[in-house]
Amino acid sequence: MSEDAVFKPLAQQTIDLFKAASTATITMQLMKRGLRQMAINLRPMNPDATRMVGPAFTLRYIPAREDLAQPPKPTDPVNAQRIAVEQSPAGSVVVVSTGGELRSGTFGDILTARLMVRGIAGVVSDGGMRDAPILQTMNLPVFAVCPTAPPSMTSLLPIDVQRPIGCGGVPVFPNDIIVSDADGVVVVPRHMADEVARDSADQEHIEKFIALQVMKGRAIPGLYPPSDETRAAYKAWMAAGEPTG
Amino acid sequence: MSEDAVFKPLAQQTIDLFKAASTATITMQLMKRGLRQMAINLRPMNPDATRMVGPAFTLRYIPAREDLAQPPKPTDPVNAQRIAVEQSPAGSVVVVSTGGELRSGTFGDILTARLMVRGIAGVVSDGGMRDAPILQTMNLPVFAVCPTAPPSMTSLLPIDVQRPIGCGGVPVFPNDIIVSDADGVVVVPRHMADEVARDSADQEHIEKFIALQVMKGRAIPGLYPPSDETRAAYKAWMAAGEPTG
Amino acid sequence: MSEDAVFKPLAQQTIDLFKAASTATITMQLMKRGLRQMAINLRPMNPDATRMVGPAFTLRYIPAREDLAQPPKPTDPVNAQRIAVEQSPAGSVVVVSTGGELRSGTFGDILTARLMVRGIAGVVSDGGMRDAPILQTMNLPVFAVCPTAPPSMTSLLPIDVQRPIGCGGVPVFPNDIIVSDADGVVVVPRHMADEVARDSADQEHIEKFIALQVMKGRAIPGLYPPSDETRAAYKAWMAAGEPTG
Amino acid sequence: MSEDAVFKPLAQQTIDLFKAASTATITMQLMKRGLRQMAINLRPMNPDATRMVGPAFTLRYIPAREDLAQPPKPTDPVNAQRIAVEQSPAGSVVVVSTGGELRSGTFGDILTARLMVRGIAGVVSDGGMRDAPILQTMNLPVFAVCPTAPPSMTSLLPIDVQRPIGCGGVPVFPNDIIVSDADGVVVVPRHMADEVARDSADQEHIEKFIALQVMKGRAIPGLYPPSDETRAAYKAWMAAGEPTG
Amino acid sequence: MSEDAVFKPLAQQTIDLFKAASTATITMQLMKRGLRQMAINLRPMNPDATRMVGPAFTLRYIPAREDLAQPPKPTDPVNAQRIAVEQSPAGSVVVVSTGGELRSGTFGDILTARLMVRGIAGVVSDGGMRDAPILQTMNLPVFAVCPTAPPSMTSLLPIDVQRPIGCGGVPVFPNDIIVSDADGVVVVPRHMADEVARDSADQEHIEKFIALQVMKGRAIPGLYPPSDETRAAYKAWMAAGEPTG
Amino acid sequence: MSEDAVFKPLAQQTIDLFKAASTATITMQLMKRGLRQMAINLRPMNPDATRMVGPAFTLRYIPAREDLAQPPKPTDPVNAQRIAVEQSPAGSVVVVSTGGELRSGTFGDILTARLMVRGIAGVVSDGGMRDAPILQTMNLPVFAVCPTAPPSMTSLLPIDVQRPIGCGGVPVFPNDIIVSDADGVVVVPRHMADEVARDSADQEHIEKFIALQVMKGRAIPGLYPPSDETRAAYKAWMAAGEPTG
After folding, report:
1. Minimal Cβ distance to E182: which of D66, D114, D133
2. Is there a contact between C126 and C167 (Cβ–Cβ < 8 Å)?
3. What phi and psi values does residue F202 have, to the nearest 5 degrees?
4. N or C: chain A end with fewer CB closer than 10 Å?
């Protein structure tokens, strides 16, 4: 793949198509391309804010060392965490590697609010999150393992941004596309984003038809995955204006 | 135990008695019979649909092998997953052994909808479930470990149905009785179902009386478990029409 | 520290200050004093009842032995569990060490109701809880790992009360102060309770001002942690009656 | 693949080729064919007996139920464990699925001795093994997770033989080829056994040449993986009688 | 059971019988009495020193708190760890509960040497051990999870001795009998020690006969467990002087 | 700390002092400086080669993506793994972060042999190692979690070198000092290496004296940690030529 393919901005159409596709559908499309391990198993901090699409801006923590990981002072030099908070582009998803460390939180309410004000699409961390009572009410998708009260420097040290990371066992490269819903978070490699978005939207459409048939009592064989007959019936259904009855 | 005892249909009275008993009560009755490990620790996909009683129809997966576990095609031969979806009897609970594999989902919305349409009482899996946003709204009890987006063939291969399985560390034989509520899922061996149902309902009844006494401020000793005096008061309370005041 | 400091009743002012502070803030204050591991990662049984402040009353279980851990009878001698249920002081938090054993529940609805009637502030266990459907509706903060149906004697044996315990990897001494919210549970050593309460309340106050600035679009550097200028602006804001606009 | 391919006896030449190949090499060959998850991470009970090649004879346990899993009596009916012990063919490897249950042992010294006397090539279990002091001295490759004293019926119930199983997260079909050394155990699907054996032996041969070059101080680039020049030098080395100096 | 039964010294004959029995055999005897969970899965620090019999002297740690768990000074008051090291009776086994904490070691070479000099029979800990290079050469059975370098106060705080504890998920009461070999460690409740010792020795004896028959090629059915015929042959073998040929 | 302090070569005297100190002693010295979490719990691949001292050269892997992680070809561009193998300085310890991924090996025999030929002091990985049968005989300290056969690209992708990493939950910065023995691996921050080395050697010396006293039967109180009297006796012992009798 060329550098161009990786770093050119995501087309609005691709974003729109991903917004119409579930992560269950996208993982099927990834599997059809040989990628079996692109789903990160995390839970939303606010169950009413799970839907998110955007390119990854990565942040990496390592385990804390007591002499380096101290309560913050205003005179501290800039670190990777602050770069992620202030310099990640609007529309991106901040994806954080903690190595699965749950004894302290990735961000709390103030840094998360700053990300929201700056127009970030969402946050994904394989660690914990602080200030869950506030995050539960914020209109920003935040995925993590669990709430956890202690501040990040209790056990984590920010090291760098925009390097490839592992997050919950999944490789995430800067600018990979992150999509999420209540099933969790999926990572789509940047260079295949356009075609995965298109095929996922197509799959969603025919599954809408299939679900209708199931509710009418039709059996699964021949229906799902669709046989040629089912595909023909699907086309007829589309031509008929997609009746739901 | 005779084959007859195991395979004869569950009496409606037994089903009704189980429907009046919590899994907390049923596990106490099982423990009184020496069975300490019959509870499966799982969470409901829809917290408003946790109550379920029915005989087990088992499905077993093994780990996937990449050349065998491919995206489905309509020409695929029938496999064990499809048998479970199309041939499990109405009223039964489909219980699935995944070996604890969480990287892909047991079922998604379409297969689960088919089970619901066919009159299945519920689904229990020691793996994940796809399409959580839809399952969360379906009026069917589905218990699993967590939502997970990827399709089952990402890491699972269906092998057989109606064989004894382990599910979440608990043995499940075909036709064992499955009961669930928000505490999780309990397995009652088929041959002791009738008496466990009866004794559980009895225990629920006296605990209703005990809970009333607790709220009135009575101390636990002599009350719970009930002494002879408490049992006498319980009978008097029943004779008086079970006053809640 | 003197015995006096540890065992004298908690001042009402300290309780009030803790009630105004999040566990995220309190763990920052503990970290400033060198204590990095005082948060217990547990979930509330009733997400609408997470806020709790009180001194710890500890209960310790060990793994069950089948001949000792039998269904309870009214003639059983008093054991440590029953002492915790009947003799823990009103206002205290019952903190339970199970060694992380999840195959059975710490308490069920009846014992928990008894604790609530007796005026206990809440319950914390590093094991499971029975009768989740009822606990989910009780107005008492109960933190545990998960719902679990089987009765405690299935795998747990109560041994003693008011001894130092480990609960979820955190040391808890009798009369340590327990504070909780949706981020989890925090343990504050008794002898530093007054000053941690005071400093936490101060930190909450200035963070309220900082959050207002973030929502107005101000960047994090110099704001959080606050520089001298920010602290001056904070004082001016207080003098002006803390305007939220 | 045809049934014939799967069930015809393994050729002696294939066995001999596998005996000359490490599991590290065989997993590289499997990966070249798209199979990434065929290695079972287990340790040998006798570190001096790790080398084994043979077709799998599978045995499946489920979790025990207290009323069914009792100390054995001579009048017990034949069960799956006893079939595996007495009827597995000479030369085969008995592969056991325990679901990762470690609280009891798969086999002890007497059943293992019987397997050895009957000419079994080895034993693989994703559980524990009893009588480790004796197994450590037996000249039979036995791979398991760890030693464990309790008899199998403490927590395991034998269910069936020669069905596909998961063992340590790897799918094992009856007659798949099992190869082991100190790196662990590898499963080769039956239908690709002949070609994997041949290519593994070829790879071992050239790596012997490469290792010689490394010890002489040659750098890795161009050497490993071998460039065309290295392959030519390899052929010259073979033609020269494979000098080790 | 009476207090007398629990606290009277273990008879030398019982010790001798246990020394002739493997833990595999003893767990079978415990299971026949309904106790399924009395084996602790640990590894010996010195694989050449695994055999140990003696009554338990228990020591309990809780998680460390940074202000209490500091490097030791000679002026520190006596704590529970030092009581275990200096006051445990000769012949006893020091059994330690760490709650599974592995980030620091239970004891190092100096305290272990002191225990050996004082005549302790062995050490069992569900945590780690320091100074493994030295412990590997000491002629004292020490069972733990793994070697670990940091001193105990890094993450552990000693609390009390001779209280009931959980060790690796197994209940251990003071004076319970501890027996170990390469299969791990088994706990025998004090009040059933004499009869378990006797029956274990009997079982060992007949299994010696059975193993001889297996090596002669006899099949398992009727042999193991022994039928009446096998028992008769066993008696004849004993009467004949137990020929090994 | 200055950059100079971190990057200047380690003095030979410091190396020699570390070679005379156990990791148990070094972790005590680190704890005295407030660092509680600097030990990595790993096992040596060759139990006869555990002793190693040298500055860290770090290598970081992330989880593999199937399209990027393919069997190596001689035309592959240089990657981070190959840089670590060919460009790490003689005398350094290659420390590898795998995120705990055990499904494939960090290095095999050929790359490890290349490191040994190049004069590397040792290898530390929080993942697995391939070709254990050969590594077990190599005179190079290699610490990892376990043997594992599959090649690294099965589940790992090399990303960068000489960046700070987490290895087994411990922060490792380039040029931190790595010391190991059979207790595992310890990381000493570069800027405190000289003084930790000196104080560790001092501690070892007095512990040699203390161990002699223990074997003579002296009790622990006043001896360990040493009182002023013990320290005086220690000095007298040194002055007397350190008699071992």
Report:
1. D133
2. yes
3. -60, -45
4. C
Closest CA to A183 of B154, C27, E71, E193: B154
CA atoms within 13 A on the CB side of F172: 33
The candidate with the shortest Cα–Cα distance to E17, out of E185, E201, E206, is E201
| B184 phi-psi bin (left φ>0, alpha ψ -120 to 50, beta other) | left
Beta-carbon separation of C149 and B183 below 8 A? yes
Residue of F nearest to D21 (CA): F131
Chain B stretch 84-113, residues whose beta carbon is closer than 8 A to a beta carbon of chain C: none
Q: Can you tell me the distance from the alpha carbon of D154 to that of E32, in angstroms, rounded to the nearest whole number? A: 10
- The conformational region for residue D175 under phi > 0 = left, psi -120 to 50 = alpha, else beta, is left
Cβ neighbour number for residue A26 with a 10 Å cutoff: 28
Q: Which of B166, B123, B117, B169 is nearest to B144 (CA)?
A: B123
Cβ proximity of C189 and C175 under 8 Å: no
Name every residue whose Cβ is closer than 8 Å to that of residue E76 and which is 6 or more positions away in sequence: none
Q: How far is CA D169 from the centre of its chain?
A: 14
Q: What angle do CA E41, A102, F147 make, to 5 degrees?
A: 45
Q: Which of E6, E41, E58, E62 to mutate to test the interface with C (most CBs of C within 10 A)?
A: E62
Q: Is the ipTM of this complex over 0.90?
A: yes
Between strands E52-63 and E177-181, the pairing is antiparallel
* A135 touches A109 (CB < 8 A): yes
C-alpha pair distances (Å), E184 with each of B46, D212, E34, E208: 44, 43, 20, 21
Name residue C13's amino acid: Q
How far apart (Å, rounded) are the C-alpha atoms in residues C234 and D11?
A: 83
Beta bridge partners of F142: F123
pLDDT in 10s for each residue of chain F, 245 residues: 445 555 678 899 999 999 999 999 999 999 999 999 999 999 999 999 999 999 999 999 999 999 998 999 999 999 999 999 999 999 999 999 999 999 999 999 999 999 999 999 999 999 999 999 999 999 999 999 999 999 999 999 999 999 999 999 999 999 999 999 999 999 999 999 999 999 999 999 999 999 999 999 999 999 999 999 999 999 999 999 999 87
Distance CA E174, CA E179 (A): 14
Write out pLDDT tens, residues A154-202: 999 999 999 999 999 999 999 999 999 999 999 999 999 999 999 999 9
- Residue of chain C whose Cα is closest to the Cα of E62: C166
Helix axes D23-32, D193-215, angle to 10 degrees: 120
Q: Do F186 and E149 touch (CB under 8 A)?
A: yes
- CB contact under 8 Å between C36 and A109, yes or no, is no
Compute φ and ψ for C239, nearest 5 degrees: -60, -30
List the structure tokens of E27: 């767990």
Instruction: State the Cα–Cα distance between residues E69 and E46, nearest whole angstrom.
Output: 29
The pLDDT of residue B1? 43
How far is D118 from C80, CA to CA, in rounded Å?
55
Query: In Å, how far is A47's CA from the nearest CA of chain F?
Result: 28
Interatomic CA distance for residues A43 and A50, integer angstroms? 9
Which of E104, A42, A57 minimizes the C-alpha distance to B147? A42
Pick from F181, F219, F226: CB nearest E86 = F219
Pure H helices in F128-226: 132-135, 193-215
Find the CB nearest E62 among C101, C164, C189: C164
Using alpha carbons, select from A165, B171, F24, B100 the residue that is nearest to residue E129: F24
Chains that touch C (3 or more CB pairs under 8 A): A, B, E
Which residues on C lie below 8 Å from E33 (Cβ)? 67
